[in-house]
Amino acid sequence: MSEPEDFAARLDRFATRFATALDAQLTAEALVGPGTPPERLVAAMRHGALNGGKRLRPFLTVEAAGLFGVTETEAMPAALAVEFIHCYSLIHDDLPAMDDDDLRRGQPTVHRAYDEATAILAGDALLTHAFGLLAKKACHSDPAIRAALVAELVAGSGGGGMAGGQMRDLEGEKGGFTTNDIAEMQQMKTGALIRSAVRLGALLGGASLDQLKALTTFGEEAGHAFQLADDILDLTASSEAMGKATGKDHQRQKPTLVSRIGLDAARRHLGDTVHHALSALMMFGPEADTLRQTARYFAEREN
Amino acid sequence: MSEPEDFAARLDRFATRFATALDAQLTAEALVGPGTPPERLVAAMRHGALNGGKRLRPFLTVEAAGLFGVTETEAMPAALAVEFIHCYSLIHDDLPAMDDDDLRRGQPTVHRAYDEATAILAGDALLTHAFGLLAKKACHSDPAIRAALVAELVAGSGGGGMAGGQMRDLEGEKGGFTTNDIAEMQQMKTGALIRSAVRLGALLGGASLDQLKALTTFGEEAGHAFQLADDILDLTASSEAMGKATGKDHQRQKPTLVSRIGLDAARRHLGDTVHHALSALMMFGPEADTLRQTARYFAEREN
Question: What is the ipTM for the molecules in this complex?
Fold first, then answer.
C-alpha cells in the first residue's frame, strides 16, 4: 500500500511551499510597525521559524479550508498565523527557565544561537505578528471572519489553551498529577493549537455549525493522537530520528500517559483515537481523504 | 493654578474604575479557551497587571475615543487590550535575562513572586488575550473596526514597535549608539505603544484620515515627552517616589538622550515636545482638553 508514502511526499511538498511563504513574511518589511524591526530580532525569529519543521498545523488549516473550496493560497495567511504561534511556543518552551533544550530539529535553539533575551523577544514578536496576519485584508475579504479567526487563535493559544497547558506541564513536573490531569494538560498544551488549526480552516471556509462541530472533534482527536505518538516516540525513537533529545520526559520522570498506562495500552489507545478522528469526518466525502491520512500519519510517524 | 491637581484626581479615579474592569477580565472564566486556565497562571497575570499602575495608556485610548462621542464603557475593551500589552512587556522586561528587576511599583516582580517560567507564560498569555479583547463583539459592533484595532496593536507592540524597541535597547547596552539610534529606540520601545493607545481610540471613534493623522502626531509627541521625562526622573527622582530602582540606567551607563545632551537641554527639549503635542491637537476644541492635560502631565509628573 503506497498511500502513506504518497502522503509523506505531499506533506513534504507542502512544507517546501510553506517555507517560501514563511520566508516572505519574516522580513523587516513584512513586520509592519512605526519603526524598523532590528536585524537581530528578525534573524532570531527566522532562526526559530525557518528550521525545516514538518508544518503539520498549517497543513491542517489548509486542508480543512480546502474542504470548502478555499485554495492553499487563500488559506496561507491563517496557516502562517498558526505556525507563528507554534514557533513562538517552541522558542519559549526551549528557554532555560522552561524545558532548557539546546537542540531543536538538530539545530541550536534560539537562546543558544542568540541569547535568552533575544529568544524571549523573538517569541513575543512571532506571537504578536500571528494576529497581524489574521487581521489584514489578505487573510479574508470579510472582516467578521478575520475577527473570528483572531478570537479562535487566542482561545487555542492563550491561558485556556496552549500557554495554560505549558503552565500545567511545569506544575506536573512537581508531581501529584492524576491520569486525568495529564490528559487535560496535554489537551491544552498540544491539543488546543491543533484543534484551532483545523477550526481556522473551517472558519475560513464558512463551515456550517455542524461541519464546524465535526471538524472540532476531528481536531481534538487528531491532537490527542499526535501527543500520544509523541510520548511513545520519546520512549522508543532515537535522538537522531527526532532531531532533539529523546527519553528526556522519561529521564525527568515527567508524567505522560505512556508512563501511567504503559506502552502497549498507549498504542491501543492511540489506535482508538485515530478511529475517533476518522469517525468525526463521516459527513465528508473523498475531499476529506487528506485529513484522514493526516490523522493516520500523526499516529504512524517515526519522528 | 489648580488644573494639574484636578487632572491628577481625574486620572486616579479613572485608574480605580479601570482596575475594576481589569480585575473582571483576569479570571479563569474570562480567559476563554478549550481548557481551564491554571490558577497559578491567572494569579501571575493578575500580579503583573493589578499592581496599581497609573493606567496612562488606557486613559489615552478612552480620551481619544471620547473626542468622537465614544463612552468610557464602550472604549474599555480596547483600553484593556493596550494595558494587557503594557503589563506583558513589563513582566518580560523585568526578567533576569532582560533588565533583571526585583521590584516594580514597590512590589516583587512576577518572576520574583512566582518564578521565571511562570513570568514568561503570564506575559505570553496577557499578550495573547489582548487580541482576544479586540476581536470580540463587545469591543465594537463593526468587525472591520475590530480587525483594524488588531492590526494597529500588532504594529505598536511587535517587531516594528515595542518588542523591536526592547531589542534595540538591549543592543544599545553594548555601546556604539548615536543620539539618533537612541531616539529611534525610544520611539519604538515606549513611543510606539503610546502612539497606538491614541490611535486605537481614534479608530474606535471613526476618526477621519486628517483626525487620525493629527492624533497620531499627538501620540508620538506625547510618547516622546513621556520617555524624556522618564530619563530625567531616572536621574533626579528618589527610588521611593518611583516605586522601582532609579539611577539604574545611569549606573549601567545605558545610553539615554539625557546622558547625551545633558539635563538642561533635555528639559528644554521636553518643553518643545509638549508644545508639539499640543499643536497637533489644534483642530480639536475643548473636548481635547484632557488630552492636552495628559501631555503636560507626562512632562511634569514626579513618578
Answer: 0.95
